[in-house]
Each structure stands twice: as structure tokens, then as C-alpha cells.
Amino acid sequence: MSEEEAIKTKKRRPSALPGISSLALVMFMLELLSLTYLGFQGLSKSLVESSSLDIYFKDSCTEDQVKALENELKKEKWYKSSRFISREEGMKEMAASNDSAFMQYVELNALPLSLELYFKAEFASAAQLESISGRLQKLQIIESVIYQKNLLETVNSNVAKIQLTLLGLTLIFVVIAIGLIHNSTRLNIFANRFIIKSMQLVGATHGFIIRPIIGKFIGYACIAFPISLVMLFGAFRGINYIWSGFGSISEITAFIAPSQAAFCMAGTLLCGILIAAGSAWFSTRKYLRSKIENLY
Predict the structure, then answer these.
(1) Rounded to whole angstroms, how far apart are CA atoms 91 and 82?
(2) pLDDT tens digits for 62-90?
(3) Is the pTM of this model over 0.70?
(4) Which of 44, 63, 144, 199 is the most buried (most CB within 10 A)?
């Protein structure tokens, strides 16, 4: 083969860059979506479980009655923990948050007994808290029940918005990736049209022709996977500079177990391989079913 023919052959050879870059973007978005989902789920769980339902008892209520109620609540399936606050402890906490001049007017007997009640995250819904609060409020020894209703609604709403946004971006990149793989497959077939034509003339099956093309795109997915990990690491490192109000990324990743992260990475690689193989298979089948002359 002459030098001129070699240059022409090289020019006709389709580039692997569109397929690899598109798969890397899809894997990056899948990794970001899955890790962010796990991180925000853990963060929201921590926020919900650290928010208490505060029960204040009437002045006539004794500590024995409060502890008896606490023991009854421990039997509930939603119960996580509780903290009894005596009048003395209440006085100390109030003194820590107020100046001494104000504390001169506060009497120990004026402070009620109270109980901080914490819930398991899976049961800490607004409806659940409303129901439990209503039941407790009916007890004769209880003066009032207070909880942060807006916290649950705000946390759940913000987590849902972030997850939907990432899901939408992921779907967009999946569509783009499939389109790029489709075009890359078409160029691959066009560059090898004479070989494919010869193979068809000698009776080669579609499966025999498609197999190496699928293998090539699976190889693209394996190359794209470490690239996506680098992109993910760069995104996590740079997000504090782009959005200063986000806080430290460790606040999110701290709630992700290593086993969960490993499972997400393995799932991402598998999804990338399936997307690459499936797109290559469908695209190649489409063009092999048409007349080979149409590819000229």
C-alpha cells in the first residue's frame, strides 16, 4: 500500500472519540446521580432523626409520670430515642442561652418538665408526626407538643428537586450518547463497507458481522469508565468553588458507605456497557437490514 493510500485509509477510519466521550458523560451523570441520591438520603435522614418532638408537661405532673410515659413510647416502632429534661436541667440550658440579668426573674418551679422525642427516619413524615402529636396532646399530663413541621417538608422537597434535576440531565445525556453511538456505528460500517459487502456475499450472518462492532463499543465503555471517575472527582473537588453556599462536599459523602459507593460504580459500569452494546447492536442491525448499496 502506497503512502497516499495509507493516508486515505486513515482518514476514512472513524474516530472513537465521540463514542468514548458520550459514554463518559453518561457514566459521569449516572455516578453523580446515584452518589448524590445516597448522600442526600443520608443527610435528610440525619436531619430528620436529629429533629425532636418536644413534649411539655403540666406543673402538676411528676417525674415518675413522665418516665412511665417514656417507657410506653419506647415500645412504639417509630421510636428511636428520647431525652428527659428535668427542671434543674432546663434551668441550666436556659442559663447557657440567656444572660444572668434575665435569669434573675426565672423561678425553678416555673419551668415545666419536658421530654425530647426522636423518631426513626422512615417513620418521620409530616403526617406521622401530626398523628402522634395529636394523640399525645390528648393526655391529661401534657401541656403542649411542639415539633418542626416545616423542616420535614423543606428537606423532602429540596431532596426531591435535586434528584429530579439530576435525573433529567442524565436522561438528556443518555439520549445524546445513543445518538453519538448511532452515528459512530454508521461511520464504522461506512468505513468497512467493502469488507462487510464481501462478508455478506460469502454468506456471513448478521451476528458474525455485528459481534466485533459490539466488542469495540464495549471497549469504548471500559475506557470511558475511568474517565467518568476522573470527571466525578473533579466535580466533587470543584463544587465548593462554583457554589460557595453548598458547603463541604464531605457533608454529603459522609453519609455514603464504601459498599454503597462500590455498588454504584459497578452498576454504572454495567449500565455503560449495556448502553454501548445495545446501541451498537440496534444501529448495526438497522443498517445491515437495508441494502448495502445505500451506504455508498
Answers:
(1) 19
(2) 888 888 988 988 888 888 888 888 877 77
(3) no
(4) 44
Tell me if 26 sits within 8 A of 173, measured CB to CB: yes
Q: What is the mean pLDDT of residues 140-165?
A: 78
212 has which bridge partners?
none
Q: 52-147 in CATH: which number? A: 3.30.70.3040
Alpha-helix residue ranges (DSSP H) falling in the chain: 3-12, 17-50, 63-73, 87-97, 100-103, 126-137, 149-191, 193-201, 206-242, 250-253, 258-289
Q: Kindly give, in sequence order, each residue whose CB lies less than 8 Å from that of residue 46, ignoring residues fewer than 6 positions away.
A: 255
Average pLDDT over every residue of 227-246: 74
| 247 torsion bin: left (phi>0), alpha (psi -120 to 50), beta (else) | left
Task: Break the chain into its structural domains and give their ranges.
Answer: 3-45+154-295, 52-147
Count the alpha carbons within 13 Å of 169 in the hemisphere toward its beta carbon.
15
What is the side-by-side strand order in the sheet with 52-57?
79-85, 114-119, 52-57, 142-147
